[in-house]
Amino acid sequence: MGHKFAELAFTPKVKVAQEQHGSRRAYSRMEAGEDHHDVLGPNEAGFIAARDSFYMATVSETGWPYIQHRGGPVGFVRVLDDKTIGFADFRGNRQYVSVGNLQTEDRVSLYPNRARLKILGRARVVDANDKETLHRLSMPQYEAQVERGILISIDAFDWNCPQHITPRFTLAEIEEATAPLRQRIAELEEALQLKAQDTL
What DSSP letter does each residue of 87-136 carry, written as one string? Predict the structure, then answer.
């Protein structure tokens, strides 16, 4: 079929909309050739391993979509192999909407970061009895209660452009970007103090 993300996302009604708006011809080329975009490569694995948050969409048994933020230290999402990722599910507000949704529908969609690596897959909840898997997903240095693990088998992924997505930066990214400026300010303040002392 070619591009696995297109195979799953481009339903007949999506293709009709693409045709109506003039993009169908371009996207039909994605669907040609050998299967691809269903096995994580080094770029995808590196991108996922560097994340400190993402959004996960599930669907309720009554058909309602639900998107929930998941976060933790950088690296809390683990690439277990080229078709599987997983993460420790830390205790939050205890509504368990995503966990409940996964009991009847295992399909999920993940959206991490502005660069938008979109992932379609099937999720499985790992309970506290599976100590080996939870150990692989654990982050001992992060003080949060792990209630369960979530494993996601990758069906397809797609990189998307960041157009119309407002950039967001973590505190660590801001501190790194402004470190040279803060260093220069400190140097100038020190020079001013020395100059002021010389004039006394």
Answer: EEEE--SS--HHHHHTTT--EEEEE-TTTTEEEEEEEEEE-TT-HHHHHH
